[in-house]
Amino acid sequence: MNKPAFVKEIAKIRNKSKSLRAPHFRVISWIEGSPLPNGGRGTSLTFILPTRACRFAEAEHGGCSMCGYPNENPPDPPLKLIETLPEITMEHFMKKKVEGPMVIKFFTSGSFLDRLELPPHIREKMISQFAQLEQIKEIIIESRAEYVIKKNIESLLKVAPAEKITIAIGLESADDEINKRSVNKGMTWKQFKRAVELARSYGIRIKAYILLKPIFLTEYLSIHDAILSAEKAIEIGVETISINSSNIQKGTLMEKMFNLKRYRSPWLWSSLIVTKKIKQRHPEIRVITDPVAAGLIRGAHNCGKCDKMVKNALSEFSYTQDLSYLENITCDCYERYLSFLIADIMGSGLGFIFEDYELSKKNLPKQ
User: Fold this and answer.
1) Measured at the alpha carbon of residue 33, what is the angle toward residues 157 and 278, in degrees to the nearest 5?
2) pTM of the model
3) N-terminal to C-terminal alpha carbon distance within the chain
């Protein structure tokens, strides 16, 4: 079967970027505020682990259209170095000397549950050493849905209680056509649902990443899709929604479209609308929005004057889950954004759902 043209282009760009990947073995970590799984606030320690990166991105179809994270990973780190990751991550933790409840996040720019990135005995050791600490209330790992299988879940539960584990999965969109034709996700809603239901049957929490504004979607349609995708994910038991506003990463099809002036990253107003709408409808759900490169031309941005204000409001909300941080935000560019949205809706022939979907002026951020 012939691949769609955009899949061929993704693979072409990805193959070119592989030659630019430099061998290294750096573990990156940082501290920030984080909401806790059962309410309250704490601190999160995030690790970026230098594994070989996403197997899906390495395959012939080139991976997701917006993701440049694998380009930062070493091409083929030796096992003897991978085996040192439990000790290195614990050293980072000890040096931080953080008091109070904590969340640990393990990111590999791929799948923590993929044995080719992290052999089972290594990931078990990493999870175990943190799960034993009373201070650690949650351990978040990222994985594609295909690795959320019974064998891998039971491997985790050998070394940690289910209530401390959250698996974060990149849903991107609950619409299979968008995931196929815009994201090139290589996953269907049915596969995502299976992974969620399996994890939940063991008492493990699920966090869903939702992409705001994939390529080929207008601003309004991306808002519409993000909210609907969150609704569907919550219906099947997802407990945390993370809204990932698109940012232009190097070595991606999204970057090529950006350079050709065929793509604009989303407005920060759109991030605010989606976040606010989901939390209003589902106050019991954790909603996280921390746009990467916010305020920059490659990240979610408004006019420049209000970008920092809106980003800070989203960050404070994400930390506290207090919707009051998203109220009474004002800027001259808001009227321009609203006009942009209206033109977007009418130009797409979607005016009939404008009021029905509550994106009228009175329901957007208060002036």
Assistant:
1) 80
2) 0.94
3) 53
